[in-house]
Amino acid sequence: MPSDLHGLPITTASPEAAAAFDQTLLAYFKYRADTPKHLARALEADEDFAMGQILRGYFMLLAFNQAQVAAAREAARAAGRTIAGASAREKLHFSALEAWIAGDLERALKVWEQILAEHPRDVLAFRLAHFNNFWLGRPAAMRASVDRVESQWGVELPGYGTLLSCKCFAYEECGEYAIAEPAGRKAVEIDPEDLWGTHALAHVMEMQGRCAEGISFLGEMERHWAAGNNLVHHLWWHRALFHYERREFEAALDLYDRRFRNLASPLTQAQPDLYIDVQNAAAMLFRLERQGIDVGNRWVELADKAEARVGDCRSAFTLPHWMLALAACERYAAGNRMLQAMRVFGDGTDTLAPIVRDIALPICEAVLAHRSGNFGRAVDLMRPVLETMHRLGGSHAQQDVLEQLFLDAALNANRPDDLRRVLVRAARDKPLPLEQRVGYAAAERALAM
Ligand SMILES: [Fe+2]
């Protein structure tokens, strides 16, 4: 029986399928655009390869798009035809896929950790747990997952750089920058095309206010991004965020049009409404508008896509971004339809249901209230969820757009206590003087007067 890149047995009679499976994993870990092609080769060589079909299902779900769930189900059905003859570890992956399809992410996470307890080098289980913990706002779980397996990994393993890039990001999100940075540096030293490692380092620099260094670091690394998937857009977004903090708004907008929201680029054309791209775009437009920048009609295409995705709650953190676009275009009827669909979803059994019902819903209502000038209502809606909104998922850098939404509403509603509340949070989350932070300086001054 063949083994995967870390020596774990995989059930296929085809050496070609096994080799293509390894290439798929490596491409997935490095965020390469050609990942699906490698997987297609594996399944062409052996369509009864259960682990290959399971991976296909996982990839469908990683789009965090309700429309892709049917394809994930189809992949699970295909895997189900041969899973009885597979190993216990592969059977666990099968059950994780089924749980995830059913919206039971809690169970999927438990299964991935169960796999890792016995097979700490199952880099696929590790990466899926890392990523899904991230989108559930659980940085401590990401860090614990790294800590549990790290001693079982070594530099000789092909996935070692991936472990380091995940370590960097997990520790960065836990505020432990001195541990995060060396891990990320080592990851990109092993492979400068390790986009997750580059991304994690950009986060360290973002949180420490190292804007000039961040711009120069990402500028130096961009020659390694040609084969990347949409994470490349997010890296450009991070660069724009550094420019934004330096009040270089034109540079941020230029990156928006040419890099991370270029509607003509092949990556965007292939997936015009991918969750991460939508988050990048909406969050940047909102930040720029707060600084008085006219963003023209850029919201319109996002609002069109938001209308088409009403009712899709597979990505909780994207929901306020969809709503930002609808509100910016004053599409209040569509916004209300979206709220109603979220209420229905919130009554369900999905792991995300209580998160959508209790957190995303009031924030989305606040987005509509804020745009319609009902600032006091926006403050009142958001205040009760400030301490829990990290459960929507997303990084500190991404969640900042929600902090700024609350801040802007409190400023406009003339609520000094709420302003103070959000400034205390901002100072706690990012150790930089507030007067040096573009989104917070005006509020700091207003409170001092
Ligand atoms: Fe990021």
Description:
With about 450 residues, this protein is mainly α. It has a domain of about 160 residues. α10 packs antiparallel against α11, α11 packs parallel to α13 and α20 crosses α22. The relative contact order is 0.07. The mean pLDDT is about 95. Fe (ii) ion (FE2) binds next to α11 and α13.
Descriptors:
globular; mainly alpha; 24 helices; 449 residues; binds fe (ii) ion
Q: Could you give the topology of this structure?
A:
Blueprint: H1 15-29, H2 35-45, H3 50-61, H4 69-80, H5 88-101, H6 105-118, H7 123-134, H8 139-149, H9 160-173, H10 177-190, H11 195-207, H12 211-221, H13 231-245, H14 249-260, H15 266-270, H16 275-290, H17 298-308, H18 318-328, H19 332-346, H20 353-371, H21 375-382, H22 396-412, H23 416-429, H24 441-448
Give unreliable regions as ranges: none
The dominant shape is globular
Range of strand content: under 5%
Query: What class do helices, strands and sheet pairing give?
Result: mainly alpha
How many DSSP E strands?
Answer: 0
Sheet having the most strands: none
Task: Offer a concise description of the structure.
The chain has helices at about 15-30, 35-45, 50-60, 70-80, 90-100, 105-120, 125-135, 140-150, 160-175, 175-190, 195-205, 210-220, 230-245, 250-260, 265-270, 275-290, 300-310, 320-330, 330-345, 355-370, 375-380, 395-410, 415-430, 440-449. The chain is mainly α.
